[in-house]
Design brief:
Blueprint (H helix, E strand, L loop, with lengths): L2 H13 L2 E6 L7 H12 L5 E8 L2 E8 L2 H11 L5 E5 L3
Antiparallel strand pairs: 1-3, 1-4, 2-3
Length: about 90
């Protein structure tokens, strides 16, 4: 990750400290799953942000939330659709 990208991701993490990392399937998420993700996130406009990166050869998207409950709900709802998923609640 470049310096500018690192700074931006740090700013996002400061505002939205709870995150879910999803590694999408090689073929991408099913259209239905993507639509459900969009619907979930649209209900939380202003309370989340996201960014993607390539780390160790794996593309992932980090969904960052202001609320630990929203992050947990997102993880519970979409982790099974991902190649890999992890949830982190800030302490």
């Amino acid at each position: 990750m470049g310096h500018q990208q690192h700074e931006e991701s740090h700013k996002i993490g400061d505002r939205f400290p709870h995150h879910v990392d999803l590694v999408p399937p090689l073929a991408g998420f099913d259209e239905d799953v993507e639509e459900e993700m969009i619907a979930f996130l649209e209900q939380r406009v202003g309370t989340f942000d996201l960014y993607g990166a390539i780390e160790s050869g794996d593309a992932f998207v980090r969904y960052c939330f202001a609320s630990a409950e929203d992050a947990q709900a997102f993880h519970s709802r979409f982790a099974a659709a991902a190649e890999r998923a992890s949830f982190h609640a800030a302490s």
